[in-house]
Amino acid sequence: MAPGSHPPKTSREIRLKRYPPGMPTRDDFDLVEVTLPDLADGQMVVRNIAMSVDPYMRGRMTGARDSYVPPFELGQPLLGEAVGQVVASRDGTYPVGAYVTSMLGWREAFVAAGDQLSPVDGKAAPLTAYLGVLGMPGHTAYGGLLRYGQPKRGQTVFVSGAAGAVGSVVCQVAKIKGCQVIGSAGGPEKTKWLKEVAGVDHVIDYKAVSDLGAELKRLAPDGIDIYFENVGGAHLEAALDNMKVHGRIIMCGMIGAYNARTPGPPNLMRIVRRRLTVQGILFLDLQDMGPDFELDMPRWIAEGRVKWHETVFEGIEKAPDAFLGLFNGANLGKMIVRLGPDK
Ligand SMILES: NC(=O)c1ccc[n+]([C@@H]2O[C@H](COP(=O)([O-])OP(=O)(O)OC[C@H]3O[C@@H](n4cnc5c(N)ncnc54)[C@H](OP(=O)(O)O)[C@@H]3O)[C@@H](O)[C@H]2O)c1
């Protein structure tokens, strides 16, 4: 057993009560206490230290089965990335004290077999970073930009959702590649962080400008080479109006459209006239870039070339609030729910 910690006998978890038709509310979630089963051979008890909430989870809170991931099951605990510590073990691979990541978030503790866990050493950064800059969002940003954006020195990159988990890494990787970066985010705290900490060249507070397209034109009079899309709606419309001929648009997500059916931008014809390449991306397709990502990102962090920020909600009961906060901009950097101390 890890020093100072006792294997829990119970765990609290968040379950989905119903599929929300529009913007989810607190009432769509239940907090339930469960008794953990006794350990069988090859099993471990893992105490979660922190869990992630991510925009993609909204796509699983629907009965529709047209996505690349299946819907969450009603009345069952939600699933998602988490980092935790083994606190009891009947398995040789993961001894007591080992740190692990899993897809078994949204709960305080769980019993699992080794094939549901991955080891994490926590050497490059605090454990929560493995849910953000060193985890799925960072990997998506790195792989999406480098593979499909092919950024070159001197090119202009526009990033929406720039102060979020993915966007903040895209901005900084583009800077490392020698690009001019324009980031868009909502509110002065986010724009200040992007400029002063992340070193973004030009920052737009999209909530404070009346004409996003005109602002982009002012900041990039010769046009945009690469647009990294996280948001959709007015951002996509403004980017399309300002793309260079043969520019590239990387469609990572459209969070502005996750809770409502919104019409697409009226200027899609720009894709034809400007001969743009538009590429949808998925983290799962970028797995082959894992070894490069795992070399580059810890090094860039150690060199101070990539910075990250976390917004932390405390306690499993706050997980729905943290999730809902993604849709009103409550997070600067990665949204994290802390469930217990690191050690
Ligand atoms: N394709 C993939 O494999 C993959 C993997 C990871 C993430 N993604 C996508 O990447 C995007 C960013 O994800 P993330 O994890 O980094 O989230 P995030 O940016 O850390 O958090 C969401 C942010 O989106 C912004 N936002 C929310 N509603 C908005 C709206 N209606 N209009 C404009 N901005 C809005 C808010 O920032 P502001 O305060 O700045 O508005 C909010 O803080 C999402 O679209 C997500 O689905 C895709």
From TrEMBL:
<protein>
    <submittedName>
        <fullName>NADP-dependent oxidoreductase</fullName>
    </submittedName>
</protein>
<keyword id="KW-0560">Oxidoreductase</keyword>
<dbReference type="InterPro" id="IPR045010">
    <property type="entry name" value="MDR_fam"/>
</dbReference>
<dbReference type="InterPro" id="IPR011032">
    <property type="entry name" value="GroES-like_sf"/>
</dbReference>
<dbReference type="InterPro" id="IPR041694">
    <property type="entry name" value="ADH_N_2"/>
</dbReference>
<dbReference type="InterPro" id="IPR020843">
    <property type="entry name" value="ER"/>
</dbReference>
<feature type="domain" description="Enoyl reductase (ER)">
    <location>
        <begin position="25"/>
        <end position="337"/>
    </location>
</feature>
<dbReference type="Pfam" id="PF16884">
    <property type="entry name" value="ADH_N_2"/>
</dbReference>
<dbReference type="InterPro" id="IPR036291">
    <property type="entry name" value="NAD(P)-bd_dom_sf"/>
</dbReference>
<dbReference type="InterPro" id="IPR013149">
    <property type="entry name" value="ADH-like_C"/>
</dbReference>
<dbReference type="GO" id="GO:0016628">
    <property type="term" value="F:oxidoreductase activity, acting on the CH-CH group of donors, NAD or NADP as acceptor"/>
</dbReference>
<dbReference type="Pfam" id="PF00107">
    <property type="entry name" value="ADH_zinc_N"/>
</dbReference>
